[in-house]
Amino acid sequence: MKKTLYLMRHDQTLFNVQHKMQGWCDSPLTKIGIQQALCAKKYFQDQSIVFDAAYCSTAERASDTLELVTDMPYTRLKGLKELSFGKFEGEPEYLRPQPIPKLHLADYYVQFGGEDDFVAQKRVNDTLTDIMNQDNDNVLAVSHAGAIIMFTDLWDDSDKLQRAGFTNCSILEFSFEDDQFTFESLINLEYKTR
């Protein structure tokens, strides 16, 4: 039976505005971030989308986003966390090495106490697969840019997300059947908050 996953990137945070890396570290939502979440809530209401279950990473920016989008009970899961950047956490984004196109940075951050890209990718994929194999037809999960891009790389071309304007509060719709995810659409609500 075909199911639907709405995989949402958390809303704008202070570190997003300051262009700082935030993997396992955290920063609060901004006023714009709060407006983005309320815009997402309205989108789901306007589309009559009702969730059977809701999940988010253990980061407060993800749970704060989820709590603004829906008032239903939810589960926080470590498997939905962002990649750990180790000693780069909270540092300016310009320090991030540029990956070779279409390749991950692999184990670059491990030497700085961070996480291997492919380990993080497997963690996120396993978590979302487990979620979708439960007795739920429509699921909302709030996660992070890197985690979502790495997950999408397994099932589709994540470069098209970047070209389409994958921003804070973007929602990716995936169908799920027979342990396979299929990317259906990118719902980008950022511009409606201005």
TrEMBL record:
GO cellular component terms attached to this protein's record: cytoplasm
What is the designated name of this protein? Answer: Putative phosphoglycerate mutase (Putative)
Return any one Pfam family short name: His_Phos_1
Q: Which domain of life is it from?
A: Bacteria
Which Gene Ontology molecular-function terms are recorded? phosphatase activity
Q: By its UniProt entry, which SMART domains does this protein fall under?
A: PGAM
Against InterPro entries, the record matches this protein to: His_Pase_superF_clade-1 (IPR013078), His_PPase_superfam (IPR029033), PGM_Phosphatase (IPR050275)
Chain segments annotated as transmembrane: none
Matching entries from SUPFAM superfamilies are given as: Phosphoglycerate mutase-like
Q: Where does substrate bind?
A: R9, H10, D11, Q12, T13, L14, F15, N16, R61
